[in-house]
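It would be a great kindness if you could assist me with a short task in structural biology. The full record is reproduced below for your convenience:
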Amino acid sequence: MSRLFIFALFLLNHVSSTSHANPLTISVEQNNVFLEALLPELLNDVKLEAKIITIPSRRALVELNEGRIDANGLRLRILEERYPNIIKMDEPVLHIDFIAITKRDDIIVKSWADLAPYKVAYPAGWKIFDANVPASTKTTTVNDHMQLFNLLEIDRVHIILLSETIAHSLLKNRTDHPFRFLYPPLHSTPSYLFFHKSRQEEAHKLAEALRRLKANGAYDQLKQQTYTQ
């Protein structure tokens, strides 16, 4: 039984004491352990039910815009201009650093332009990388985040691009890994949950719940616990 399936069952059971006629379906990105820890707290606070799934990033946008799922995250600010039926929860969930990762000691990356000479891989559907990686760069996109590290480890690519939080969560059990995280980040930005416009009321309730968690210190405590496990 997959960890994500168990997580979905936990959410449904955790809030089952308060019924909702039409539970949310939320698609979450792979390996975001903080979001997986945060969502039960938010849903329980506002007495909402949810089913949590993971679908590929690009497809998730289409399904959200068409109303086949109710929410998706984490994503950036840019989506509302491109998808008319999508609204943003008006409280950022997490500030994300997008970084380059390599095995080689001689690679220095301080800007997007520095990627041009190398073979680069990143997650399919991540618009931040589609928009900023130089057109001349030889790129590979994959749907599975761990596959990025596999490509890097067998020298199929020189650099992979990922969010720092997801990279750390994937490598948390590998203390002897050969990978170098390159700083400064290529980009830092707040990230959000996005909702279909028919779920505006739920989006507002969850934003208020998130603000309460930040105000009472529970958010910082949860983040510290998540990233030190």
